[in-house]
Amino acid sequence: MSLDRTILAFAGVMVLLSVALTHWVSPYFVWFTVFIGLNLLQSAFTGFCPAASIFRKLGVKPGCAF
């Protein structure tokens, strides 16, 4: 799996996790969802994604976007 697809899968899992935590644990976990959304938005404009840096160091092969 390329870095691009890994990032998209990771973002999807994190969004689903944050929605589940909001539903079952505390409504304040909605701020985790907001953080993920803001991070996705800034990476669309700047091209910088902290998760991409981490996955790259873990040896995930690069893709087109990151």
Q: Please, how many helices?
A: 3
What is the terminal-to-terminal distance?
Answer: 13 Å
Structural class: mainly alpha
- Tell how many strands the DSSP assignment holds: 0
Order of helices and strands: HHH
Mean pLDDT: 93
Shape: elongated
Question: Could you give the topology of this structure?
Answer:
Layout: H1 3-24, H2 30-46, H3 50-57
Helix pairs in contact: 1-2, 1-3
Sum this structure up briefly.
With 66 residues, the protein is mostly helical.
Q: Could you describe the 3D structure shown?
A:
With 66 residues, the protein is mostly helical. The protein has one domain. The protein is 71% helix and 0% strand. The chain contains three helices and no strands. It has helices at residues 3-24, 30-46, 50-57. The two termini are 13 Å apart.
Which key features would you list for this structure?
single chain, 66 residues, mainly alpha
